[in-house]
Design goal:
The N and C termini lie far apart (32 Å). The radius of gyration is 15 Å and the shape is globular. It is an alpha+beta fold. The protein has four helices and six strands; from the N terminus they run ααβββαβαββ.
Length: 150
């Protein structure tokens, strides 16, 4: 429930069901990560290995508690995640971000620079695919190749 509440308070992230977060943590525990501060969840990243692209980690959501934002938590936990030994074949990070989510755009561009990697941006899902409810397009960020995450 703590992850669900963190995502709920982290707009503009899309809030999914509690069940989806339970599945992410149980089925994809090796590619998800939690940060704690004072015995509370301070950050969460959900990710998975892209089907058909074993060298690509797709980052679904990055959330950081408002209590600890702008303290480098997201950078720290994404770095720890890609340093895991089970992800040593990952050469690329992909994620999608809506054009209005300036903090996420800035984060992923900055993360690419930190890794000295290229960040290629392209439209992945046009807005009309979301059923005409005003959802923005999703821009794909492809970061890599990653050669030295430390």
């Amino acid at each position: 429930d703590a992850i669900y509440q963190l995502i709920r308070s982290s707009r503009p992230l899309d809030l999914n069901s509690r069940y989806s977060y339970l599945l992410l943590c149980s089925h994809f525990g090796e590619t998800c990560i939690v940060a704690e501060c004072d015995s509370e969840i301070a950050g969460f990243i959900s990710a998975y290995i892209h089907p058909g692209q074993a060298d690509t980690l797709f980052v679904w959501q990055v959330a950081v508690s408002s209590k600890v934002r702008n303290m480098g938590i997201a950078t720290s936990i994404l770095k720890k995640l890609i340093e895991r030994s089970n992800l040593n074949t990952v050469s690329y990070i992909e994620t999608t971000v809506t054009p209005s989510n300036r903090p996420s755009i800035s984060f992923f561009r900055s993360f690419a620079e930190r890794l000295e990697a290229v960040c290629i941006e392209s439209v992945y899902f046009p807005g009309h695919l979301f059923g005409g409810n005003g959802h923005e397009e999703e821009i794909l960020f492809r970061i890599g190749p990653i050669t030295n995450p430390s």
